[in-house]
Amino acid sequence: MDKCSPHARRRSALLTWQHIASLPPTLPVVYCGGFNTQKESTTGRFLLGRSREHGVVGDMRDAWPSARVRKNVSLIHTYHGYKGDKHGAREFLKLMFRALCLCWDRQTQDLHIDWVLYRGRSLIPVSSEVVNDHIDDIYPSSHYPVFAEFMLPRSVRLLEPPSVQSEEP
To answer: Which InterPro entries does this chain map to (predicted)?
Structure first.
């Protein structure tokens, strides 16, 4: 989503949510990417069903706190500006202060701006990871990607049967 404009992020979230809401309610949905805002923002609160936007409330869930296994939990920020965990003293102190604040505020156990959201009772987040891979201190992105693995019960069937390819003689 737009990194500069909170209004654009709210509008993007609303438009995306309208599409998700038009899908059958039993259809599992995964919505992920760089949201460029924290989950306690207006956009995050809307998507997670904790606030209204134009009379609509989202009902997505965040895979990160819901996953049975989480990897790299110490990476409370997913934006790192190509620096990885090598921040200056000022950034380190800000990070430590926020980490201490998070100890008291269990609603915001992370400051991720990249999320994996999901909808549907049939999706069960098994694991989630903030991926911090790099080669020689060179990172492929200014954000750490967030990875989630879901379990989907066998009882969930495809809406359309897979197409059968005919064999040519």
So the answer is: Endo/exonu/phosph_ase_sf
Low-confidence ranges of the chain (pLDDT < 70): 86-109, 155-169
114-119/61-62 β-pairing: antiparallel
The Cα 80–Cα 116 span in angstroms is 18
Under DSSP, is residue 117 helix (H, G, I), strand (E, B) or coil? strand
Cα distances (angstroms) measured from residue 139 to each of 29, 77, 121, 132, 156: 29, 15, 35, 8, 38
Instruction: Give the pair of three-digit tokens for residue 127.
Output: 């694991």
Looking at residue 123, its amino acid is L
**Which helix (H) or strand (E) segment is 15 a member of?**
helix 6-22
Mode of pairing for the β-strands spanning 29-34 and 69-71: unpaired
The model carries a pTM of 0.77
Cα–Cα distance for residue pair 50/121, rounded to 1 Å: 18
The token duo for 29 is 């949905």
